[in-house]
UniProtKB/TrEMBL annotation:
Membrane-topology descriptor: Multi-pass membrane protein
Transmembrane segments: 104-127, 139-157, 184-203, 241-265, 286-308, 328-347, 354-375, 395-412, 424-444
This protein's UniProt keywords: Cell membrane, Membrane, Transmembrane, Transmembrane helix
Lineage: Eukaryota, Fungi, Dikarya, Ascomycota, Pezizomycotina
Protein name: CrcB-like protein-domain-containing protein
Amino acid composition bias (Basic and acidic residues), ranges on this chain: 50-70
GO molecular function list: fluoride transmembrane transporter activity
Record's compositionally biased regions (Low complexity): 15-30
UniProt catalytic activity: fluoride(in) = fluoride(out)
Family note: Belongs to the fluoride channel Fluc/FEX (TC 1.A.43) family.
């Protein structure tokens, strides 16, 4: 039976049925501009259900990119202004300098949101990792619940049609196009969700599962900390158990992240009647400049805290400031850098290959390789790293690498790609990143061995 809106179903190469839309995506390119290269922006919502309304039905990410690439880059024009003296429209449009200045202000707002939400996402990720690292925890993968939470928020924001709606006359499709032009939306998806989740930490946990080095929190709760050297427990009898550990981490991390993405989208659909609408006028006039100033001041304040950082003494426990103060502050310093690099790389590379989001792949692989380098330097027995140097390396791993890599965007792309392309993209991303850590960290572990970091040694 044909769908109720009269669109004819067609089948992609994976055998799944999709609905072809008679409308063009030209307006998407006209509205989004260069930000359309962000997969957080252009990727379709994760929910596809034939029983839903037509606006809930979507096409694949490849189709959207192909249509965008076939369209010429539109030139923005200013609306004609009425001359208040004689009521006539001027013959000369607004100068290009004014358009460039407005685009500069918009980009400044986006950068401000990215800085602010990268700091907020990093703080929340580290807090979740610390809270879920306790004796008797059912899952030892430290970043699991941060990835689940970030993917859940990404699914909600991708499917939501009410939070950024302009007025009631706009359709769901128009509301979706409009929200993707808002700096606040870009900050929440690219900045907050991307920083709350970490692909590099996920691959690190995957390697530690392979090498039987996943930390097992033992002993009293007051003596257990994420920022401390923790016994890894007994070694597995043979490599077959390491294989089972890898499979377990893969299924738990990827499966729960994708499930939370869909759960967030379902929540957005189910609560659409009760979700309030944010006033866009208030956001542009008050929230945008306020967040920009707050982001700059927050980043400067964190840098000043690192400069004034002092090393204390005493018994180190889970909530001791000497345990988490240095690594957390350095992580907050490097977090905005990782988010901004990911944002720029995604703008430049994500549109190169429609079936393979190259930008996300590059930042995930690059961030994982940087994490492997920092991890090896921190755990090398002959490195001679100072106490502060050890904390800086931890800040690079948690801050720069954690924000440079993302799971929320990755699972959103997996849900938007065609099935064959999604499996290929996901498999290549995990296998190549894991091989990089095997070369970087494995060569050190299986030769000279890994030593306890100097800044985590006293526990």
């Amino acid at each position: 039976m044909p769908p109720p809106d009269g669109r004819a179903p067609h089948h992609d190469d994976s055998g799944s049925t999709q609905l072809s839309s008679p409308t063009s995506n030209s307006s998407d390119s006209q509205i989004l501009g260069p930000q359309s290269n962000l997969d957080e922006i252009i990727a379709p919502p994760p929910i596809y259900e034939s029983s839903e309304k037509p606006e809930r039905q979507r096409e694949s990410l490849e189709n959207r990119r192909s249509k965008d690439e076939s369209l010429p880059l539109p030139q923005e024009t200013e609306p004609a202004q009425v001359n208040t003296q004689d009521g006539r429209y001027p013959d000369i449009p607004q100068p290009a300098k004014k358009r460039a200045f407005r685009e500069f202000l918009r980009m400044a707002c986006i950068v401000g949101y990215l800085i602010f939400f990268s700091i907020a996402g990093t703080i929340l990720r580290l807090a979740i990792e610390c809270l879920t690292f306790y004796p008797g925890t059912p899952v030892n993968a430290s970043v699991l619940w941060a990835n689940v939470g970030g993917s859940f928020i990404m699914g909600f924001l991708s499917e939501d049609q009410e939070l950024f709606r302009v007025d009631d006359s706009h359709t769901a499709e128009a509301a979706t196009k409009h929200k993707k032009t808002i700096p606040l939306y870009i900050g929440l998806t690219t900045g907050f969700c991307g920083s709350l989740t970490s692909f590099s930490t996920f691959i690190r946990d995957l390697f530690l599962a392979l090498s039987n080095d996943l930390a097992v929190p033992l002993g009293p709760y007051s003596d257990v900390s994420l920022f401390a050297s923790v016994p890894v427990g007994a070694s597995a009898p043979n490599g077959g158990f390491s294989f089972m550990a890898i499979v377990a981490v893969l299924f738990v991390e990827i499966g729960l992240s994708i499930a939370s993405l869909y759960l967030g989208a379902h929540l957005a659909i189910g609560t659409s009647a009760w979700i309030p609408t944010v006033s866009q006028r208030w956001v542009r006039k008050f929230l945008d400049p306020f967040v920009f100033i707050l982001a700059v001041l927050s980043w400067v304040a964190v840098i000043c805290l690192a400069a004034l950082l002092s090393r204390g003494s005493g018994r180190v426990t889970l909530w001791s400031t000497d345990m988490w103060k240095g690594p957390v502050i350095f992580a907050l310093i490097f977090a905005p850098l990782g988010t901004l690099v990911r944002f720029i790389v995604s703008l430049q590379l994500n549109s190169r290959i429609a079936a393979f989001p190259l930008g996300t792949f590059v930042v995930n692989l690059g961030g994982t390789m940087v994490l492997g380098m920092a991890y090896s330097l921190q755990h090398a027995s002959s490195s001679g790293a100072s106490f502060v140097g050890c904390q800086v390396l931890q800040g690079i791993m948690d801050g720069f690498c954690g924000c440079l890599t993302t799971v929320s965007t990755w699972v959103l792309e997996l849900s938007g790609l065609r099935r064959r392309h999604a499996y290929f993209y996901g498999t290549v991303s995990v296998v190549v990143a894991l091989c990089a850590l095997v070369i970087e960290i494995g060569s050190l572990k299986w030769t000279t061995g890994l030593d306890s970091p100097s800044c985590f040694r006293n526990i």
